[in-house]
Specification:
Elements: E1 12-15, E2 18-23, H1 31-44, E3 45-46, H2 55-59, E4 65-69, H3 75-83, E5 88-92, H4 96-109, E6 114-117, H5 121-128, E7 134-140, H6 158-167, E8 168-178, H7 181-193, E9 197-199, H8 217-224, E10 230-236
Parallel strand pairs: 3-6, 4-5, 4-7, 5-6, 7-8
Antiparallel strand pairs: 1-2, 8-10, 9-10
Helix pairs in contact: 1-4, 3-4
Binding site for S-adenosyl-L-methionine: 68, 93, 120, 143
Region (Disordered): 1-20
Organism: Marinobacter algicola DG893
């Protein structure tokens, strides 16, 4: 996404890497989100045009650096950043209402350890982040593309995982979570076969939810309906 206009339609959009794993849905920012965006984007926003960043320069320090891909409305990311002021967080989200909502959370909570991209995560990975810059990558509840014919659109694929691997330092964490059992099985298969990663649990085992992953309203609602949630925590070995 190269501009900040509202985008309508619900069909996947192609990029130089093929079909995207998300759709650009209709939706406008609320007045509060728009005002927060206008006030805070110049300070907290990062763009493709900035090219390869130096996180130490962006944050003014050299601390643990986290990347969340697809932060939704941003509350969980804001919760994590508020709970760990000694860490730094970069969030990526293509839907502008979510970007506006996170910027409002940043303002309301007085957070200084968050920066935001409003572009395709592929561009952030390929064009904006240095190799071995990240301590942790988080992908929570990505679109499951539950129909079998759409499984190719799922974000977690071998090629994507390997590109993330190069952005993680050795020992860095890739934390995935989903509430779709079939997608959890798909993720486990992909990660189990991925070069340079090892499961933090026994082979083929899912992880207990780490205490620092907030439980979302969506997740709580799913749990009351009997839906399961699966966390996968892998670390880079080489």
């Amino acid at each position: 996404m190269t501009d900040h206009n509202d985008v309508s339609g619900d069909s996947p959009v192609t990029t130089r890497r093929g079909v995207r794993s998300f759709v650009l849905r209709q939706g406008r920012m609320t007045e509060g989100q728009k005002k927060a965006y206008d006030r805070s984007w110049p300070k907290y926003g990062l763009t493709r045009e900035q090219g390869m960043i130096d996180p130490r320069q962006i944050f003014g320090r050299d601390n643990m650096l986290n990347l969340e891909i697809g932060f939704g409305m941003g509350k969980s990311l804001a919760d994590m950043a508020e709970a760990a002021p000694e860490q730094d967080f970069i969030g990526v989200e293509v839907h502008l209402p979510g970007v506006g909502a996170l910027l409002k959370e940043i303002e309301d909570r007085g957070l200084e350890n968050v920066r935001v991209y409003a572009i395709d995560a592929n561009d952030v990975i390929d064009r904006c982040l240095p190799d071995a810059a990240l301590d942790r990558v988080m992908v929570f509840f990505p679109d499951p593309w539950h129909k079998k014919r759409h499984h190719k659109r799922r974000l977690i694929q071998h090629e994507f995982v390997q590109r993330l691997r190069h952005k993680l330092r050795v020992g860095g964490i890739l934390h995935l979570a989903t509430d779709w059992e079939n997608y959890a099985e798909h993720m486990m298969e992909i990660m189990g076969e991925s070069e340079g990663f090892a499961n933090s649990q026994d082979i083929g085992e899912y992880s207990p939810r780490p205490e620092d992953r907030p439980i979302t309203k969506f997740e709580k609602r799913g749990e009351t309906l009997g839906h399961g949630v699966w966390d996968l925590v892998f670390y880079r070995t080489n």
